[in-house]
Specification:
Length: 174
Amino acid sequence: AADWPGLPEDEATARNQGSIFFAKNASAIAMTCWSVMVSAQGESGVVEQPRLMEFAGAADLVLLDVPCSNTGVLARRVEAKYRFSRAGLRGLINVQRQIIADSLNLLHPQRGRLLYATCSIDPAENAEQAKWIAQWHPLIVEQEQARQPRGLPGESASEYNDGGYWAMLKRSQA
């Protein structure tokens, strides 16, 4: 929550009791690290993709930190500007939409919320994706924030921040 001012603390911080952590395309090392980190959190656990649908309809909150163009963190990830292309951006948008669609079955039917986040400043990966979600899925944007990068890495937190975007979406009352 400290990285994303305006995001309610209780929604930005997982209530680790009973939390399930999952990462698509995570390396074995990352999965092991997450397993160790959450093992001290009581009933929390890390689930690999083949078992994910066992939790369909059970999630109060699904956090999607999707792959993106990294345009909000170019000060720290300078190689990202050399990878960027319009065709690559279109491909990323499609991957983001697939991840979104794949995650929706996890949401609790009444109280499920989706927190969509990127480290991009490109509206096509951000607000336009939130609008797409609301247009094609039974969710509405409850709250969102875009932030532009400022300062340089190594400066104090009051002078430097990465750019990015987040949107909290909730089930629409259809």
